[in-house]
Design brief:
The chain is built from 16 helices and eleven strands. It has a six-stranded parallel beta sheet with strand order 7-2-1-9-10-11, sandwiched between helices. Strands 3-5-4 form a three-stranded antiparallel beta sheet. Strands 6-8 form a two-stranded parallel ribbon. Helix 4 packs parallel to helix 15.
């Protein structure tokens, strides 16, 4: 074999052992996910576990798509939060709303997507693909939210992180009353000090119930500018403390951009020196050529300043169904990496925001 050929053949030899009875998910990924998108998943799992979960790395997770109705809030996100593998979160409001059903011990059921939706409507059943639940689940969750949102601590301007932290406090108390634990993302994030942001707070049933209270001059007033600056302050603090910033993107949508735009906010808008996120893992079934991944593939993200151009080897996109890939990533990480100390960034929001403001004001003089 020529020396010219040898330089291309330095990768691991594809020579797997046969799949065996009782193999763990982590071993399955390491031993048999060797090529195509399985190979990308293996690379993403190793990048996440070996580099993104290094103690110096601050991990932001974005969540889009109807993941929590399928149970991925409790099965995937809760273990990541408790293990210290998710330091801050950007989610759709719908994921946090439907996850609250679990915190309230309301039932969702496996079903069949090949049903007559007209009949479901007549029978008072709601469908999310093959997830079915009683329409009263929505009404009971709405009623609970409006009751809680009338409490005195909600009657002010606040970021979505504070809104969801307070909701998590009430859901955690409800868990205690019901003798439950770790039922949903918000209660776990509250207990672990993980801030949960929603990039489009009006675009969900939580936002709709906030809007109902607004008609009566009650409830929280969401400060979206605080959200933009708080998330930028988290990334800025990670870098200024000598650490690194990592992003794990589950699905696309608005949360995908919101977690990535932290770097352009720092560089382009505030004019502070920065180079982009250090580590990047995305799970998506969208395509760049249709605009579905616009500005979000690692290459395009570099052009926006979202990803450090020197760190492209530490950027992986897995093209696959998030409901399949995310549990495998979580199983791999929780098997291969010991839990990290909780960073409790929610409790440090004001401190981090003040540091960002000081440097911005000093630069502006």
């Amino acid at each position: 074999m020529s020396d010219t050929a040898n330089r291309w053949l330095t990768g691991r030899r594809i020579d797997p052992s046969p799949v065996r009875r009782g193999i763990s998910a982590a071993d399955l990924v390491d031993e048999t996910f060797l090529a195509y998108n399985a190979g990308r998943l293996q690379k993403a799992a190793r990048l996440f576990t070996e580099k993104m979960l290094d103690p110096s790395s601050w991990v932001g997770v974005s969540v889009a798509g109807a993941l929590t109705p399928a149970g991925l809030g409790r099965s995937v996100l809760v273990p990541l939060i408790r293990a210290g593998f998710a330091d801050w979160i950007v989610s759709t409001g719908a994921n946090l709303y439907h996850d609250a059903h679990f915190g309230l011990s309301l039932e969702l059921h496996q079903g069949d997507h090949r049903v007559d939706d007209r009949q479901l409507r007549e029978d008072g059943v709601v469908r999310i693909y093959d997830v079915l639940f009683d329409y009263r689940v929505l009404l009971r969750t709405d009623a609970y939210l409006r009751e809680v949102l009338r409490a005195p601590e909600f009657q002010k301007d606040m970021s979505t992180a504070e809104l969801h932290h307070l909701l998590g406090k009430y859901l955690a108390a409800r868990e205690d009353e019901l003798g439950l634990s770790d039922t949903c993302v918000l209660s776990t994030a509250y207990r672990c000090g993980v801030p949960c942001y929603v990039s489009s707070p009006g675009d969900s049933s939580i936002g709709m119930n906030v809007a109902e209270l607004w008609l009566r001059s009650r409830g929280p007033r969401i400060d979206v500018s605080r959200d933009v600056n708080e998330t930028a302050a988290i990334v800025y603090a990670a870098k200024r403390s000598g650490g690194r910033s990592s992003v794990l993107i589950l699905g696309g949508g608005s949360p995908k951009n919101f977690v990535l735009q932290t770097e352009p906010q720092i560089q382009e808008v505030l004019g502070l020196e920065e180079r982009g996120h250090d580590f990047f893992v995305q799970v998506t079934d969208a395509r760049a050529d249709t605009g579905g991944l616009s500005g979000a593939t690692p290459g395009e993200a570099v052009s926006w300043g979202k990803v450090d151009p020197d760190k492209m080897s530490d950027a992986v996109v897995v093209y696959g169904d998030t409901t399949i890939v995310a549990p495998l990533l979580a199983a791999y990480a929780t098997t291969r990496r010991e839990p990290r100390p909780l960073r409790r960034l929610y409790d440090r929001r004001e401190e981090l925001l003040d540091a960002l403001r000081r440097d911005y004001v000093a630069r502006s003089r």
